[in-house]
């Protein structure tokens, strides 16, 4: 019984200090708020893309100091094209990792779909657009099959996709036949998508301007929506700062590309996929379901999320992106062969997603991880090749970088648990 009798007022919870959104602190305290928020994020393990950005800066500084040609416009332009195939596959891997799962079949799926396109369009004379659609549908069907075994039958994703890695590779060899290699003519749709470069300077600068304006418009629209809903929103200074930083990066990249040949169409397509699928993950109900499922499957089930369908759809997206990446890789070497999808492609795709900042534990990541991770791996390979170092050293360094990324992810997750954010 409360002191003072039955009718004595009971202390209310109004005296408790409500949680303050970090964006409100930033808006009220200015630069001091930014510094405080940055420290809070670091202490709670919310590192974001900071580690990989710092790693990329170090890699470029080291190789740039060893050989000036590394940072030349020609090498950076070539690098931006070479990472597209692996980067596309890595985008799909990001989706699966967000569930806390893994797909070990993406390399074989990429080779299989490249073989489907090459055999249909070159060997059998099928219309190249029809062949392209069939190759993409082939990737989606593969993802559907693997997703059903995982989500409906209950076979672990590791086992399903490991079996798929072997099975789809065998199907690719069967499709290619005795010749083993089908050369692309060079003027087909896939080859043109990879090799086309817009030499007009307005193309690169225009793409940069459109990207910056779209980011600004999306940020302002989000702020307007949040303000109308009465929830915390980013202050104008924050939006302006982010827009300026993005503009500097975008126009510097456009300037560099224009110093060589211009804007590669493959890079533009890669960036479009990143932006569109990032929107799907961040701004749609489906994307929130994917994050929820990776963060807490039991909580997602109680929230009414269709667990099976979400899992199946994620594996379909992953395999379709593997198909797209495989087509770009085939266009890069102008052929589909028995080695397509093999080598270290699988490891590079998974490593790109993880190095870029996607958590192996699920629930945290972004499609931009594929770009950052592919840039790190591509930069290491490019720098090593310029220095004339062997593949053995490349593998060891890439493995060390991957291990470092996983260690950072583990430490960040531990910090988040200590801060009560997991």
From TrEMBL:
Residue stretches spanning the membrane: 47-67, 79-99, 106-123, 129-150, 157-177, 197-218, 239-257, 263-281, 312-333, 345-361, 368-386, 392-412
Location(s), subcellular: Cell membrane
Membrane topology: Multi-pass membrane protein
Entry keywords, A to Z: Cell inner membrane, Cell membrane, Membrane, Sugar transport, Transmembrane, Transmembrane helix, Transport
Top-rank taxon: Bacteria
Signal sequence, start to end: none
InterPro entries in alphabetical order: ABC_transp_permease (IPR001851)
A UniProt-annotated Pfam family: BPD_transp_2
Job of this protein: Part of the binding-protein-dependent transport system for D-xylose. Probably responsible for the translocation of the substrate across the membrane.
Identification of the protein by name: Xylose transport system permease protein XylH
